[in-house]
Amino acid sequence: MTTPTLTLDTTALLAGVSKRTLWRRVQEGKLSLAEHAPGRPARVGLAEAQRVSGVALPAEEQALLLAADAGDAAAGTELGLWFLAHGDVARGVAWLTRAADALEPEALYQLGRCHLAGVSVAADAATGKRLIAQAAGLGHRCAEAVLPLFHRPEAASWSPTEWDAALDAAEQQLIAEVVATLSS
Questions:
Q1: Is 87 helix (H, G, I), strand (E, B) or coil?
Q2: Which of 83, 86, 87, 106 is the most exposed place for a label (fewest CB within 10 A)?
Q3: 126 and 120 in contact (C-beta within 8 Å)?
Q4: For residue range 18-45, what is the model confidence (pLDDT) as tens digits?
Q5: What percent of the chain has pLDDT over 70?
Q6: Could you list the residue range(s) of the whole structural domain that residue 1 is in?
Q7: CATH of residue 43
Q8: 50 within a domain of the structure (yes/no)
Q9: DSSP secondary structure, 16-69, as one string
Q10: Does the residue 45 lie in any domain?
Q11: How far is residue 37's CA from residue 89's CA, in Å, rounded to a whole number?
Q12: Contacts for 132-138 with beta carbons within 8 Å, 24 or more apart?
């Protein structure tokens, strides 16, 4: 059985350090590479990546990490949400940002929510609106449902707490509509 490995890029994101820092650790003998061939990305064993990052992920999240490393942006989104749910804000936002950079709709929406509500990042309504509009443009149903909030006159003066409450209410309304449709 092949030992699972991660690219150095993913290991850096998991560890919250730069690739340069990881290369220095390799040179110092503090990090072992599982693979390093000319023209191919350097790879670190999954266990070694968790050791160097100080993160011990459960098996399900390890599978998400491997999928995200292979380019699955939806897996990266799930991993980001898992980190946020477990109080690891820096890693959570980093993974959501990586997935949003790949235009993954849920990541765009969740990161936009974070910016509007000032959760896990500094409140920035313009960035939050832009990210949610992008998600809506990609067909994200919750993002589409909250777009009308952006045009309400009172929204211009909403605090992050008010944005959070308005987003929650819009999501709850969408869920109620979906449930009602399924029930009929």
A1: coil
A2: 87
A3: no
A4: 999 999 999 999 999 998 889 898 999 9
A5: 99
A6: 1-56
A7: 1.10.1660.10
A8: yes
A9: TS-HHHHHHHHHTTSS--SB--TTS--EEEHHHHHHHHT----HHHHHHHHHHH
A10: yes
A11: 34
A12: 132/108, 134/103, 134/108, 135/105, 135/106, 135/108, 135/109, 138/103, 138/105, 138/108
